[in-house]
Known about the structure:
By secondary structure, this protein is an alpha/beta fold.
Amino acid sequence: MVGCHGGETPRHRTSAFVVDGTLAIDAGSLTSGLSLKDQNRLTACVISHAHLDHIRDLATIADNRLQAGADTLQVGATRPTIDALKKHFFNDIIWPDFTALPKGESPAIRFVELDIEKPVQLGGFQVRAIEVNHTIDTAGFIITGQDGSLAYSGDTGPTERLWELLNHTPDLKALLCEVSFPNVEQALATASGHHTPQTLAADLVKLVKPKDIPTLLYHIKPVFQAEVEREIAALQGFNLQVCALDQQFSF
Ligand SMILES: [Zn+2]
Ligand SMILES: [Zn+2]
């Protein structure tokens, strides 16, 4: 867990996770939370959607890796996300186009288009992008390695297809699920395409698999951290854990 919050303070970092040191999931804190050595060890990063809290450190990791002479970082995302990154982020205005730097050599980053539900090999894992339900085009991911599969919800409110596919993923070892707002802010959560503990619980029961599957929760808004944690603690029948910075899990 490099970053696992829905906002930033000195004690909260925006979404970024690293699997086995090589594959990053989202880039909200890849440079604020990782040493240079660990940044350069990454071979790929999958990006769920183009919101700033999930892409921001692509800017600084691309720059750092270029200076370090690191290999090209493969950046996997769906077509709408790649288009947004090219047009609004690596556009030679907000930030240089690091897909074309350094000049004449292998670039700092390279985009790899992920077709929805089509498996792609990235960072030593098989990655499948699944459409979820947020305010812009957003993917969750099913990431499969030798030891099993990990699911990442992306930013989403209630959704169906992710759970359908997970019900056909027999080696599923753990879930990384978003939850952002307390129940009292349900209208805001619904309008912004996020979960509250009550909608999360209603979604988790769509998973037919054993209810004790480890479910790690991220993207809580810092302002509501304590309130959301209290509501999560009151949910019965699941194996829920709120992610903490720099925590490590083995599956
Ligand atoms: Zn978002
Ligand atoms: Zn977000």
